[in-house]
Amino acid sequence: MRVLYIVGIVFAFFFLIIMAAGTVGTAEEKRRYRSDYEYYDYDYTTPQYVESTYIATGISFVYFVFAYVLYILSLIFVKTTAARIFAIIGLALTLIMTVWGIIVAGNARSISFDEVGGAWILYALITLAISIIGTVQSFRYHNQQRAQRQQPGWPPYNQPYPPYPPQQPYGQGYPPYNQPPYPPQQQPPYPPQQPPYPPQQGQPPYPPPPPGWNR
What we know:
Number of helices: 4
Low-confidence stretches: none
Radius of gyration: 46 Å
């Protein structure tokens, strides 16, 4: 698309020159025809300015085909917002100019190109500006694509980030309820409890009460 947009800049520049020359040339042909034929209304041959109108509109139709191809390919391959907006604008203007060119070519004797050539000149200026903007956008998109290929960890351009892995249902992956969360120790963390006094041999564990304690 970068090369095609650069070619579009060149074609738009030459189209502008040709349409300006066609407008001036048609006006000159009309003036010359009317000065040479005082009774030109009775002349049934095709005047020169009518032929100039046919030639100018025919050249514009060839350029319109190139413009359609350029803008449609731009919508497909240059995935930036600015490039898509200007491509849609270019397609709409080209469609309008195509319809207007058909009307002018069908009524070349009553509508000469010098009367409507300003519309073609304005269209050529707009398409030249769109081609320049499209060239900048295509280079920018190419640089973004190259940077993403050098960083494979990033998601593709204009694509959402990959979703997180599915979570396990609640309670799975954890120790069962009422079970120790840690593996049992081989030895208890504290020494086993011992009686406060070791048992005496032949004696009760506590000394007998003194005599007369229950009187």
